[in-house]
Amino acid sequence: MRRSATIRAASSATSSSQSFSFDLTLTVRGPDETHGGTAVTARFSAVSVKWSLPPSFPVSVAEFNRTAGQQLQGLEVDFNVDDSGKILHMPELPEDLSAELRVVLQQALDALETAFLTVPARPLKAGDTWKDDKKRGRKGKLGRYSEGTVTSKVDGFYKTGEPPITVARLVTDTDETEITTTSSGSHEVKKQSTITALFATEQHYLYSYVNEEQIFDAGNTNTFAKTEVNWAKPASQTGGAPPTKVQDISDPCHPDYVGSEDCNEAAPPLPAGGEPPASSQPPTTSAPPPSGN
Known about the structure:
Layout: E1 2-9, E2 15-31, E3 38-51, H1 61-72, E4 76-81, E5 87-89, H2 99-114, E6 129-136, E7 143-160, E8 165-182, E9 185-200, E10 205-217, E11 221-230, H3 235-238
Antiparallel strand pairs: 1-2, 1-11, 2-3, 3-4, 4-5, 6-7, 7-8, 8-9, 9-10, 10-11
Helix pairs in contact: 1-2
């Protein structure tokens, strides 16, 4: 998973860049009665963070990126998803994080969340469209609350990869409003995004997607971000047959040998004196004793 963003200040011509990349390993835990749906654990690895900071920031860029990477590396996140791909539960970040680290980790969790697409249970064909209402958090309460509309369309069916697999190309447009409420007040941002995704129709998983997003923080910044995700299933889940093991049998006397050579077992050498070993001589019997008169 890779995400890069350019942040432009609303009141000046200055801009900064932010990017991170990481691998995710998903483990399905099973049904969860507490939060509903299926419990899944995501583990972060191969983390790389490249974040630019304002000149007045008290920590060096290198130290900040290293600390952020360490926070993400090996992190395990437990969340819940239903059968349609909708996220039912995503944990909140710890309260003791600095504001800057919170931004990095929150964007990583957001990238994880957008890596799942909601699809209807009914069979779909090219040209089909559907809408979903997106809502997370509690409106008017402390923390993050977001709501919006997601419009999706099946753009067509194609072949991709090697060996080729059939994928459905899905295009999803999202309009979302996010409100963060703290004890000192609330802050609102607007988000618009377009996701182009490929869904493996026979293997039933999201093959890849590209999310192009604009975030409008009125009076502060405008952010233009791009997220790219490629998923892969382990070989044990793709139905691929294990490689065939071939045994090389070159001995013509082996019971499983298949070939044109004849089995010619050499006779054991004669011992000194020219007599064959006792085990190779024909068996002898002693004559019965003469019968008495």
